[in-house]
Amino acid sequence: MAIRQILRRSLSAERRLAEVPKGHLAVYVGEGEKKRFVIPLSYLNHPSFQELLFQGEEEFGFHHPMGGITIPCSEESFIDLTSRLSST
Question: Whole-angstrom Cα distance, residue 88 to residue 85?
Fold first, then answer.
């Protein structure tokens, strides 16, 4: 019985991690190992973010190895950009 509870907790935790709030999008960022970020959809309209998307398209085409949009830049650059976008 304890094993079932552990499995249920584990599966529900995985579902929560996989969920993306309404109005947001999960993207994978990094030059080597990829890290998952959840961002507001409004970022997609910003020219600086669109440039990152274009770079991702150039590198990966429409096949994204992580199963979501993959952006080929450093985490630091991505965090810097999203910090600037969130303050506007």
Answer: 5
- Is 50 exceeded by the pLDDT of residue 67? yes
Residue among 77, 74, 82 at smallest CA distance from 41 = 82
Find all residues with CB under 8 Å of 14, minimum gap 6, and list them: none
**Residues sharing a CB contact under 8 Å with residue 81, sequence separation 6 or more, in sequence order:** 48, 49, 52
Nearest to 43 by CA among 86, 87, 9: 86
Q: What is the pLDDT of residues 4-59, one digit of tens each?
A: 555 455 444 445 556 888 999 888 898 888 899 999 999 999 999 999 888 878 87
Listed in sequence order, the residues at least 6 apart from 10 whose beta carbon sits closer than 8 Å to its beta carbon are none
Q: How far apart are CA 87 and CA 84, in angstroms?
A: 5
